[in-house]
């Protein structure tokens, strides 16, 4: 389906460490946003690890200051409008300015631990669809949130909310050096 082998291997490595440390409450499911791929590709994967099955495979936006078609720059800094790499746990849901949304908790100090104060959440977005790709050649971009197509946000969020693991992957040597989970 296009998920990079590196992204999957790192995701499973970190997932296992998080499960063993008790930080993942909902085992057996992992969500991987493979930002090493073009935003014009379906690069969000929700995987049932127990049944070896891809539950969802769709588009996911990256931050507007991370790059256009490809995400190349990442940050944990407020107001950077860049995506933050690494491991998150999914949290509760709410209805906000982007409709049905889900809070995310960044688990990596100095890498994504400011997700809450940056309001980095999963939500649906009108710019995260094939029509936008046909118009611009790539997906629209968020303020750093992993935004998904509006018709997919509710089923995806309902499936992964409240304690599952989300891994946002990108080609970034700094992340690989800093992370204690990969």
Describe the protein.
- The structure is a single chain.
- The protein has 182 residues and is an alpha+beta fold.
- Helix content is 22%, strand content 27%.
- It has helices at 5-20, 130-136, 150-160, 173-178; strands at residues 29-34, 44-48, 53-58, 86-96, 99-106, 121-125, 147-149, 165-169.
- The protein has an eight-stranded mixed β-sheet.
- Strand 2 and strand 3 (53-58) form a beta hairpin.
- It is globular and about 45 Å long.
- The two termini are 23 Å apart.
> Termini separation (Å)?
23 Å
* Oligomeric category: single chain
Number of strands: 8
Largest sheet composition: 8 strands, mixed
Mean pLDDT: 97
Instruction: Give the overall shape, derived from the CA principal axes.
Output: globular
SSE inventory with pairings:
Blueprint: H1 5-20, E1 29-34, E2 44-48, E3 53-58, E4 86-96, E5 99-106, E6 121-125, H2 130-136, E7 147-149, H3 150-160, E8 165-169, H4 173-178
Parallel strand pairs: 1-8, 6-7
Antiparallel strand pairs: 1-2, 2-3, 4-5, 4-8, 5-6
């Amino acid at each position: 389906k296009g998920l990079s082998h590196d992204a999957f291997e790192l995701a499973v490595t970190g997932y296992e460490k998080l499960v063993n440390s008790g930080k993942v409450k909902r085992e057996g499911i992992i969500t991987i946003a493979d930002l090493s791929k073009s935003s014009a590709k379906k690069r969000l994967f929700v995987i049932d690890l127990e049944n070896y099955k891809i539950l969802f495979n769709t588009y996911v936006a990256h931050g507007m200051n991370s790059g256009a078609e490809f995400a190349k720059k990442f940050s944990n800094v407020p107001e950077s409008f860049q995506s933050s790499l690494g491991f998150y746990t999914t949290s509760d849901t709410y209805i906000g300015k982007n409709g049905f949304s889900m809070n995310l908790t960044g688990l990596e100090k100095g890498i994504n631990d400011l997700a809450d104060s940056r309001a980095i959440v999963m939500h649906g977005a009108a710019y995260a669809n094939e029509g936008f790709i046909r118009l611009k050649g790539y997906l629209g971009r968020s303020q750093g949130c992993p935004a998904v197509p509006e018709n997919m946000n509710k089923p995806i969020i309902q499936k992964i909310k409240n304690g599952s693991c989300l891994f946002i992957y990108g080609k970034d040597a700094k992340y690989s050096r800093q992370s204690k989970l990969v």
